[in-house]
Amino acid sequence: MSDMPQCPECASGFTYDDGLQFVCPECGHEWSKEASAGNDEDAPMIRDANGNPLADGDTVTVIKDLKIKGSSSVVKVGTKVKNIRLVDGDHDIDCRIDGIGAMKLKSEFVKKA
Q1: Residues sharing a CB contact under 8 Å with residue 34, sequence separation 6 or more, in sequence order
Q2: pTM as predicted
Q3: Per-residue pLDDT tens for 26-69?
């Protein structure tokens, strides 16, 4: 078949090239070729314990008591963490927790608030 991308609005496979952009004849949506090229990147999506995608600045809630290494402190269930930052690595959330300070969390132990 053709190597044209599907329409991002209606997922139609009947798109066509119109110079600097792609056009969908079914819904009339037009989008640039640069925008279509940017969507091909397979950036890993960081998801919470329920499968919801996370983004920088989100607020999350801890779903399990988490012991802090090198300390007798514990992050309790239900602790809200505001303004998270996503980072690469095993612990993929960088945040600041009130009363504890800066720390890194795994996304599998939080849910989006």
Answers
A1: none
A2: 0.62
A3: 888 888 877 666 554 545 689 999 999 999 999 999 999 999 99
Please answer whether residues 49 and 61 qualify as being in contact, where contact means their C-beta atoms are separated by less than 8 angstroms: no
Contact 86, 102 (CB under 8 A): no
Work out the angle at residue 7's Cα, subtended by the Cα atoms of residues 58 and 33, and round it to the nearest 5 degrees.
85
Q: Does domain 1-39 sit in CATH 2.20.25.10?
A: yes
- Looking at residue 2, what DSSP letter applies? -
Joined together, the tokens standing for residue 37 give 């090229």
59-112 CATH choice from 3.30.200.20, 2.40.170.20, 2.30.30.40, 3.50.50.60? 2.30.30.40
